[in-house]
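seq as requested:
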Amino acid sequence: MTVVSNEFVLSDGCEELLAAEGIRVFVGPDGLDRAVFYIDSERNPLPGCDPNEFGYAVTQINYIEQAEGVAVCEVMKISELVDLRSRVSAGAQ
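struct tokens:
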């Protein structure tokens, strides 16, 4: 059994959007939404740490610290992706 905590400390200028055990979602100083969360040895999110479970889709991997079992990724709300797809599809017609 893997025990997770939420020991992630955000840098100055970051705005926290979500804090749960093993994951934090935040807006960085550059305005991009990111998630920091725990991963396993195969680089998959640990149970309860998957951004998808909180309504976020990973759009880009920024950093993986395999020894610590942590990933930092750019994310986007799944609902925003669906809206964007709808607007693009409507514009293409």
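The longest strand covers residues 56-65.
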